[in-house]
# Entry
Amino acid sequence: MMNEVVRLSHGSGGRQTHELIKKVFASKFGIDGPLTDSAILEINNQTVAYTTDSYVVNPVFFPGGNIGKLAVCGTVNDLAVSGAEPIFISVSFIIEEGFPLNDLETIAHSMAEEAVNANVRIVTGDTKVVERGKCDRIFINTSGIGTLPAGLTHISTGKNINAGDKIIINGPLGNHALAILGARSELSFSTSVLSDCASLNHLIGKIIRNCKGIHFMRDLTRGGLAAVLNELAEMIQYGIIIDEQNIPVEEEVRGLCETLGFDPLYLANEGKFIVVVDRDEENKIIEILKSDPLGAGASSIGEIGVENHKVILNTLVGGRRIIDMPSGLMLPRIC
Amino acid sequence: MMNEVVRLSHGSGGRQTHELIKKVFASKFGIDGPLTDSAILEINNQTVAYTTDSYVVNPVFFPGGNIGKLAVCGTVNDLAVSGAEPIFISVSFIIEEGFPLNDLETIAHSMAEEAVNANVRIVTGDTKVVERGKCDRIFINTSGIGTLPAGLTHISTGKNINAGDKIIINGPLGNHALAILGARSELSFSTSVLSDCASLNHLIGKIIRNCKGIHFMRDLTRGGLAAVLNELAEMIQYGIIIDEQNIPVEEEVRGLCETLGFDPLYLANEGKFIVVVDRDEENKIIEILKSDPLGAGASSIGEIGVENHKVILNTLVGGRRIIDMPSGLMLPRIC
# Structure
């Protein structure tokens, strides 16, 4: 790696991010097994999930949320999709000198509110301040701990996945990415699209309590649905087939994607996840999801099937195309 | 707080940091009790300590360590001084576009090495990349989890402290701060002083296993000994008296402090802690500390005594002065 440097694409959540993590971090840190969002650990015979994320979203305030709400939701969701019940959150701020205290209070208030909403406790924190120009307004790290019933440790690894399992999503794609783009002052379009930023743990708790056939879950953040499905296809013995006609995308998001040249499959979300389930439980899961505002747009989008480790999209016009792992520079600082 | 902004002093670890945390964060997040470095929590009847810190040290590489080693040692020490045995660490990177991959590998290598040294596992992580000029090279957050014997939960609160308890330090003050200052290219002095950056958990484990009378511990980072003693005096019913002649400071550090106008009591350390013990165990603790390279410079520096919540220094020349909580701008980005 002589003379190579870190590029924005290393932070995009796609192929380059994975390569960096595998080459530089996972090997040195001895992290074996799949690189899931949460580590699954044992503390005195209690299985826990443990996760961390730093948030550098630009802008700090955006339609549907702010960096503080995002930092709580994101860590709650990383724990929830591993099957865990999130209980404790840590919060660490890196703040640029000159950042308005009112804005900091607004952000802290959003975090407190979202923590109450998600029923997690913010229990420890840290504050650093750097000189003007040495960070971009404010960055927030949250880490989180959740407890995991011993019977659910397969959810983050996907090891129980079988051919024929159904893939279900809880709602339309792309809203977070387009809300952020619309809020960036350098871009000349405005939109009424709101970020979907939300804590999914209560919704996920409902399906966990009511369905025995949950084989995998993952939230659809950086890199979008395309990244998650490609990671999944790499983890398991099978390929994946999804149907474009069943993938929910709001009308305005679809229009903006066409105008701007984005594919909703690759856009970041902050309140969406996929769940892979035994096909016998497909209808039950859809019903439970649809009974909750955060799952009202739920849809069964495809299934586990072919044995080629590829993600195949059946297109609206009746063709098929391979959905690759996102590669290169996507939208920087979307979360 | 209308029109007020965040200032560098809010990140200094002194009075302004405490005010910011108390006013903005602790109240909103519902964190009650003393603002210790680690939260003490229960997970299924197992007491755990949980902590987080973001590291923004400038420069990233300095004599005696780098930001990666510091990020592991700092979180290990926060857990260890609460009485916990550190077991798991999370690592989250915010990297500036263009940062050399070689440097990132060096940092990751130091983290891995220090984790082995401290016997903690790095189990989960995150990587974000921001555009050139939007952060200063690299910032690292680490959070950590440690297990805590039920009988040791008093150590971080200091609630068992009594008048007459002895205050012991494991070595000389100020090396980390002066190593960082010396490494900053804008400063025109050079020094052979090395940062004292080290994981203290094994040393602390020795005294915990051998002494029953440990009433409080804290590491001496931002704000130095002065900040910790003032926090302690605020937490307990007593004041504190320390003797300047017993406070260890290396010759070169003392000389630089005199030249530069610093007081070693206020300088940051990254491998120093105080322990407050029953006076009957003073000698035993000193003996154990001195038998370990990280405690070779141990010294008994004072005691818990007067009832005025103040920190009093008996000076070398026979006078007395009050050691205040550090206030205003100290050395930014020392950790």
Summary: The first strand of chain B starts at residue 39 and ends at 43. The domain at 35-147 of chain B is CATH 3.30.1330.10 (60s Ribosomal Protein L30; Chain: A;). The mean pLDDT of chain B is 94.
